[in-house]
Each structure stands twice: as structure tokens, then as C-alpha cells.
Design brief:
By secondary structure, this protein is α/β, with parallel strands linked by helices. The strands form two sheets. Strands 5-2-1-6-7-8 form a six-stranded parallel beta sheet, sandwiched between helices. It has a two-stranded antiparallel ribbon with strand order 3-4. A hairpin with a 5-residue loop joins β3 and β4. It is flat. The protein starts with 19 loop residues before the first helix and ends with a helix.
Length: about 375
């Protein structure tokens, strides 16, 4: 029997994958797989994908039987005459691999009731592959996107272009790219050209349709649109021998209450003995758990531990990277020696570890005002 049309293509997104490779990397979307009675429109994009997707799956997933991988296999029983081939997981039985046949009566058969073999679309006039005039406008959308960003986001975009174009060895290609940027926004083109040390701006690239000035679209921004919440964020606490046990406990409790997860980092995975004489195990070793994996960090150290870690590059990087990545940093008095060596400055995002409320407020944001202190954009 045919699968009811109401459930074709249904996808329920209600959980994270249990195994990213098995359930995400091996997914094979193939629009050529349709039940009888459904046909393909003459949409050119679909027509191209009917070929390319199957070719991609054969190459990416190793052979013609990718539909037997659990994440791609249908949940309802099905039967066909496809057999053998590389990575065949089933054990097809019988003598025939076709229908109709007189040699085997229990092989898969078409429905005796029949079904429409294809969809018939009315042919009501001439058809042509005609592009709308808007297809010639290559720059208006890019201009709207760039001008809709906040200033730090615009700076990051310009720096990203400089970073990538700096890998391009051919000068003419770099100049050609900047010539396209001039049609998007001249200020962006100048920033990129300056980052590439171009002696002069190239002429704007020839365009059939000049870019239009659309209204700004705030919804494309990241800055200013996210809620200042700690739910889903992760805070790292660096500690060592003699760290203040009560202070660590207070920070963990406050972070947990705010919805953040907390990971404890120490020079040794076994942890360290705190000020109360009890040993606290670490979730990660300092050398293998950099601050880049956290949304904010707290550094709770004794004076002696801070002096010792001031000679450890991993500890210095832990703090300096958090500062450079505009993250909130909480530190107690003992940690100040490490912050000084890491050249951490003073702003609203650097707070006393004893003030958990102020730290958590800063941890829910990025310190964009700090950026000019740590890099040239």
C-alpha cells in the first residue's frame, strides 16, 4: 500500500543526536526518492539536485546501499528489488531481482490496484527559462546586510575579509575582490584595502544594475538581539592548591541558580586541596582545557598558586585569551598576580570573584567596549 501523503517528508526535531556521526554526518537527503504517484516539477534547481544528490551520496557514503544506514532507513516495512552492491547489509533471497516474474511468486510486487506512474501538469502555454531583472542585482542584499550590522560586527567582517584575502597570492585577484566590495560599501572596501596595504583603491567592478539602498534589517545582527541570559552558557573556574573553598562553592551555586553550567579547571586532573583541607577534583586539566571553551571564567587562587602559575604558559593563556575574547573575568586577591602577568586590564567585565552577582551579569554578555584595547580592527 502507498504511504499516506500526509506523512511524506515529515521530520521531528525534538532532541540532540545521540551520536553526531551516525545521525548527522551520515544523513542522505535524496529528493529522487518519492512514492509512486508523485512526480517532479520542472523547477531547475530540483532537476539539478535529482542527479547531483544521488551522485553525492554514492561517493560520500561509500556505495549504493546508503539507504540501509539506520538514520536513512524508513521506519515502516518496505520492499524493492535492489540487491547486492558495495556495503549490502541485507541478505536478499530468491532467484529474481525484477517484477513481474514467473520464477518466484513471493517476490516484491507492485500494487494490484495500480497507481499513477507520474504527475501530469497542464501545458497551458509557452515556457522559458527567464531570469527576473533582480537576478542582475548582485550587491543590494550584501549592502543591506553590511550596513545593518553593529560597528563591532562590521569590523569583524572587514577583518575576516583581510584575513582570507591575505592568503591569496595573486594581486589581481585581491584587487578584483576589493572592486566588488566598492559596490557594496565604499567604507568596507577602504578598510579591506588598507588591511591589504593596497596603494590605491581599484575602480568599482562593472555592474548591470547599481546597488540599491534598502532599509536596514536589524534581524541580521547578533549584537543587541540576544538575551543576556546565562542559561546554556558555561563558566570555567580555575583553581589550585589553597584556593578559597567557600568562594568556589559560592560561585558554583550562583551560576547553577542562574542556569549556567560550571566546569572546574586545575593544573592536575585530580584537582587540588582547597583552603578547607578537602581535595576538589577537576573537570579538566589546565593544559587541555583553555578558556576558549567557556563563556566566562573565574580565577580563584592563593598567592603562592598564582605566583607558580604565572610561570605556566597555559595559565597565562587561560586568562589572556579570556581577556582578548572579550569575556567576563572574575578574580580574587590571590589571582591578581596571574592577571598582571597576563596583562589583563580593568573594565566592567573584570570583577571581584567575591561579587558573584556582578560577575554573572557580566558573564551573560561580551565586553565589546574592550575590543579596541586588544586588537586593531
Amino acid at each position: 500500500s502507498l504511504v499516506p501523503l500526509t506523512v511524506i517528508g515529515r521530520m521531528v526535531l525534538d532532541r540532540w543526536p545521540d551520536n553526531f556521526f551516525a545521525e548527522t554526518e551520515q544523513v542522505a537527503y535524496c529528493p529522487a526518492n518519492v512514492p509512486p504517484g508523485i512526480d517532479f516539477s520542472n523547477d531547475p534547481l530540483l532537476q539539478g539536485r535529482l542527479f547531483s544528490y544521488l551522485d553525492t551520496q554514492l561517493s560520500r557514503l561509500g556505495g549504493p546501499n546508503f539507504h540501509q544506514i539506520p538514520v536513512n532507513a524508513p521506519k515502516c516495512p518496505f520492499a524493492n528489488h535492489q540487491r547486492d552492491g558495495h556495503m549490502q547489509m541485507n541478505i536478499p533471497k530468491g532467484r529474481v531481482a525484477y517484477d513481474p516474474s514467473s520464477l518466484q511468486g513471493d517476490s516484491p510486487r507492485e500494487s494490484v490496484d495500480g497507481f499513477p506512474s507520474h504527475a501530469t501538469a497542464p501545458d497551458d502555454g509557452r515556457k522559458g527559462r527567464v531570469r527576473a531583472e533582480s537576478f542582475a542585482d548582485h550587491y543590494s542584499q550584501a549592502r543591506m546586510f553590511f550596513r545593518s550590522l553593529e560597528a563591532p560586527e562590521q569590523a569583524h567582517l572587514a577583518s575576516a575579509l583581510v584575513f582570507e584575502l591575505s592568503k591569496v597570492e595573486t594581486v589581481k585577484v585581491r584587487e578584483r575582490t576589493v572592486s566588488h566590495l566598492r559596490n557594496i560599501d565604499d567604507a568596507l572596501a577602504k578598510r579591506v584595502a588598507d588591511g591589504l596595504a593596497m596603494p590605491a583603491l581599484p575602480e568599482p567592478a562593472a555592474t548591470q544594475t547599481p546597488a540599491q539602498d534598502f532599509p536596514k534589517a536589524p534581524e541580521v545582527r547578533i549584537i543587541g538581539r540576544t538575551k543576556d541570559l546565562l542559561k546554556g552558557r558555561c563558566i570555567g573556574i580555575l583553581f589550585d592548591e589553597g584556593s578559597d573553598a567557600a568562594l568556589i562553592a559560592n560561585l558554583r551555586k550562583a551560576a547553577d541558580k542562574a542556569g549556567a553550567s560550571v566546569k572546574l579547571v586545575a593544573p592536575k586532573i585530580g584537582g587540588a586541596k582547597l583552603s578547607d583541607g578537602k581535595t576538589l577534583a577537576a573537570d579538566g586539566q589546565l593544559a587541555g582545557t583553555p578558556s576558549v571553551v567557556f563563556d566566562a571564567v573565574a580565577v580563584v587562587l592563593s598567592n603562592d598558586a598564582a605566583k607558580k602559575l604565572s610561570r605556566e604558559s597555559a595559565a597565562i593563556d587561560f586568562v589572556s585569551d579570556a581577556w582578548a575574547h572579550l569575556k567576563a573575568i572574575a578574580a580574587d586577591d590571590g589571582a591578581q598576580a596571574l592577571l598582571k602577568v597576563a596583562r589583563v586590564g580593568n573594565d566592567a567585565g573584570v570583577v571581584e570573584a567575591e561579587d558573584a552577582k556582578a560577575f554573572l551579569a557580566a558573564a551573560a554578555t561580551r565586553q565589546w567596549a574592550r575590543e579596541p584595547k586588544v586588537r586593531t580592527l
